[in-house]
Design goal:
The chain is mainly alpha-helical. The chain is 83% helix and 0% strand.
Length: 82
């Protein structure tokens, strides 16, 4: 198994775990933990895509990371103002 396969598999696994935990109502889509899992999983999957020079998924995962970071920022901002 190549380095990109290992990194990509780890990233996708983290994304799927976040999705499963959300479906099972263990995590809310508004939770910081959900945003962190999504951001980390997308970053790893995006890096794996970069390693194999597959730009469409690099773009997809980069947007996914940015949305996750924005959601995390929003969550932390709300928590600090309460």
């Amino acid at each position: 198994m190549s380095e990109s396969d290992i990194i990509g598999t780890l990233g996708v696994t983290i994304l799927l775990i976040a999705f499963l935990l959300q479906i099972l109502k263990v995590l809310s889509v508004e939770s910081s933990a959900y945003s962190i899992l999504n951001g980390l999983g997308a970053a790893l999957a995006g890096y794996s895509s970069w390693l194999i020079d597959f730009k469409p998924f690099v773009i997809l995962e980069a947007v996914w990371v940015l949305v996750s970071l924005y959601n995390l920022y929003k969550n932390l901002k709300v928590k600090s103002s309460t």
